[in-house]
Amino acid sequence: MDNATLPLMSRIGTIFLTWRRHLQRGYARYGITLKQIHLLGQLRHREFLYPADIAEMLFCDRPTATVIIRNMIRKGWVRKDGDPQNRKRWRVQITAAGRRKEQAVHSSRTNPERLFDPEECFSKRERDQVGRLLMKLHRHVTALSD
Asked: For a tag on the chain, would you pick the N or C end, based on fewer CB atoms within 10 A?
């Protein structure tokens, strides 16, 4: 089946999966996964995140988030500290090494997000129009979880 004849959501899914594959291959050169670089970027702007919040943010289950966090602890990019308000909870924080890694990857000329702009095929007007339509679709689809 030609991509043009697929239902809209299937076409959006194919675009997403193709872009994600491009990013995963590009970040592999740096010894980091797409989820790891995303988490470092989020932690750079926050004091900490809880593992449950990380799982939700990464669209994965809690055990998968735990594995991701554990691997990042092993690499020295994050640390896990007890929550002083609730001893049952852990807080995940970025380390100095994690800040350096995130900065090195994002400032590199070979960063996969810098090598190719998937939106460059659109004019400014088309980009704005696609953005509005995708936001409309997003609001409609997120109503499923209400």
From this structure: C
